Amino acid sequence: MKQAVIVCHRGACLAAPENTLVALEKxxxxxxxxxxxxxxxxxxxxxxxxxDETVDRTTNGSGRFADMHSSEIDRLDAGGWFGPEFAxxxxxxxxxxxxxxxxxxxxxxxxxxxxxxxxxxxxxVRGMLNDAWTFSFDQSIRAEARAKVPDLKxxxxxxxxxxxxxxxxxxxxxxxxxxxxxxENLVAEAREAGLVTQLFYAGADRAxxxxxxxxxxxxxxxxxxxxxxxxxxNTKMLVLD
Length: 241
Fold this sequence. Notes:
Number of helices: 10
Largest sheet: 8 strands, parallel, barrel
Radius of gyration: 18 Å
Number of strands: 9
Strand order of the largest sheet: 1-2-4-5-6-7-8-9
Helix content: 25-40%
CATH class: Alpha Beta
Distance between the termini: 13 Å
Order of helices and strands: EHEEHHEHEHEHHEHEHEH
Structural class: alpha/beta
CATH superfamily: Phosphatidylinositol (PI) phosphodiesterase
């Protein structure tokens, strides 16, 4: 049984403030294959790595991200909320984040707001398209990505499409399941259809991880990397026995 690809959700978000350069570095230290992160533009059109619509939760500022100029965002402390040792960590610009990823780790870009074409071009100019894919919860962004940037791999959620057949019809490359909507037959069907299978799971329930391994999920979009690797190792040993 092949080891699953590890996707670090918002970087190593249990060890460092999410969606920051230090979280990226810690994800690389953990041996992650891919880093998942979120992008959205500032008021003046600069793309940043940021999950929320407001800066309140993960910085020392307040207000809607889309209403803030890049000069304001660049001054925010995006680390102190997580721990005093991370004080002074900044909200990364998308281009800076990609430069740190290049040649070191794959990228899964969730577009919260912004132009999929711009995201694609910033990946392409760095030669990073082969190890990247994108997704958005915004249906219009998903449609725009499909129409405008067919060479940027796209992920769909099983919760959105409802079947492997519909994922294929939408020309998806990756099909992501959640812990309550996958089984061995569905995973096998997706793989036979040429889709890469992925599970998003923010928890640490070893039973969920074991089920994912036994079902043959290829990529794990997770927070608890070390717990998963331990379960994966033990499950494979049982299978071999």
